[in-house]
Amino acid sequence: MKERLQSSEFRTRIAAYIDSNIRGHHDHLNEELLMITPQEKAVSYSCPLDPRSATFNTQRSTIEAKLVRAVQIHKCGPGCLKLYKGRLLCKRRAPFALAKEAWIDSAGNWGPRRDYAFMNNWNPWLLLATRSNHDCKLITNGEGTKHISWYISSYAAKQQQHSSNVSALLAKTIAYHQKDQSHNADLHSVNKRLIQRCANALSREQEFSAPEVVSYLSGFGD
Predict the structure, then answer these.
(1) Strand locations in the chain (E)
(2) For the chain, which end, N or C, has fewer CB atoms within 10 Å of the first or last residue's CB respectively?
(3) For 38, what's the count of Cα atoms within 13 Å in the CB-facing half-sphere?
(4) Has residue 161 got a pLDDT over 80?
């Protein structure tokens, strides 16, 4: 990667990729418009735009702008401000660097086009599908790969809440099943009952996010 980044042609291709997939700018939003554009509430509960719709291409940009205004504007507060050498600094590194176009240099530093310093990066397709805040990064070096690998591993291995701890639920179900079926010599019946009990235990304790519940109740579909 270090060798390829020395090529201006390669950097131009990467900049084009950033411009298409990692946004920090929207044509319908700038700092002045953001100040007068109302922020819609609870956008994650609305039905996503159907890509099969005949009006998808005409509506996409307008809906993306509304979502950006609602969920992608960063506001520094207690959750992100950390004391560092006597100064309060944003751990998200806001305000973000401004740029007239997407760019990447020979050292692997990069950034999307950005006109407003508190507009967080997003992927347009993920934003339209999930309708929720997210960040999007380009990994160009080993250090960045190490950090994201550590973050994902820590997140995946973190302690689960009781209601979502699958292994504990299954262990409890199996222990009850073995005691309840100890008298039954029909292995086919015992195993069938075990599968049913495990499925029931998991579905009974399954957690749903609020947008997912609204989606099912409203008939949006999967």
Answers:
(1) 81-84, 87-90, 103-104, 110-111
(2) C
(3) 4
(4) no
Q: How far apart are CA 146 and CA 46, in angstroms?
A: 36
Pick the closest to residue 22 from 90, 144, 119, 148 (CA basis). Answer: 119
As beta bridge partners, residue 127 has none
- How far is 184 from 190, CA to CA, in rounded Å? 7
Distance CA 125, CA 131 (A): 10
Cα separation, 20 vs 168, whole angstroms: 44
Among 93, 111, 115, smallest CA distance to 102 is for 111
As a whole number of angstroms, the distance between CA 198 and CA 186 comes to: 19
Q: How confident is the model at residue 207 (pLDDT cuts 50, 70, 90)?
A: confident
Tell me the two tokens of residue 121. Answer: 């990066």
